[in-house]
């Protein structure tokens, strides 16, 4: 990671504290997460198979504009139904009646499964390089029944074998290195759970019913999700809006974060969430509260945990 990107990541780590919530009493489940932005805004919840830190570029771009972002690192579950119940209780603990969901890869599949069970709680979804059926992964995994007992190093080897290799674009190569480091922060139980969920033989039932509030963001270059599976997602959701990134690979939310963040803002604007515009309009009505930088762009700030953060404070 070059020094500039490292500075952005360190800003995120030093400014936004990671939080934990325990769910259950007999079989306690600990969910780790980052939550930042105005509490009166319906949040965008990021779901992935990695750590809660991997969406840091969405936080440093969107939160200063007035969006609320939550990135989760879910506790180990061995069934889709168990994960959905756990996620529902997680939202209960945060007192969130409704949310927007962003899911990439396995996270996108989990988001779809949750939407299917609790459609009234999900206002919209953004799906990124994901799939709607896990049968392919089940058929191509020779040891899916043994993930829970495999040692940590073997589980990491299985996951890393699907990471891009060979000659890569510089940004993508740095992103892959970052994601490899993040895998090191997952425990054996977390790794086994993610592989188990990914290879469970199940699919989204009646996917096209009532699902119109969806944007699909995919990379056109090589990803670990086969093209056939991504095309199935398009067929499942014919009403979805589709945004295609020329490059970016599996982790385009890092390697092509600027493009992806624009698509996120366009998506949320459809559902009345456009805090930057609202602030601009308010500022236009009150010139005393209107501030701008040298190029005429407005500077916005948010308050959280006693800290005032301006967009211009973040190193780009």
Index terms:
alpha/beta, Rossmann fold, 8-stranded mixed beta sheet, two-stranded antiparallel ribbon, 12 helices, disordered C terminus
Quick overview:
It holds the Pfam family Abhydrolase_1. The chain is of the alpha/beta class.
Architecture overview:
The chain has 316 residues and is α/β, with parallel strands linked by helices. It has a single domain, classed as Rossmann fold (3-Layer(aba) Sandwich), CATH 3.40.50. The chain is built from twelve helices and ten strands. The strands form two sheets. It has an eight-stranded mixed sheet, sandwiched between helices. A two-stranded antiparallel ribbon has the order 9-10. Helix 6 packs across helix 8. Residues 284-316 have low confidence and may be disordered.
CATH class: Alpha Beta
Largest sheet: 8 strands, mixed
From the N-terminal CA to the C-terminal CA, the straight-line distance is 14 Å
| Class of secondary structure makeup | alpha/beta
GO cellular component, one term: cytoplasm
Keywords: Cytoplasm
Subcellular location: Cytoplasm
Protein name: Maspardin
Please render the helix and strand layout as text.
Blueprint: H1 3-15, E1 19-23, E2 29-36, E3 44-47, H2 56-62, E4 69-73, H3 80-93, E5 99-104, H4 106-117, E6 122-128, H5 135-139, H6 152-160, H7 170-183, H8 188-199, E7 214-219, H9 227-236, E8 241-245, H10 252-255, H11 257-269, H12 275-285, E9 301-304, E10 307-310
Parallel strand pairs: 3-4, 3-5, 5-6, 6-7, 7-8
Antiparallel strand pairs: 1-2, 2-4, 9-10
Helix pairs in contact: 1-2, 2-11, 3-4, 6-8
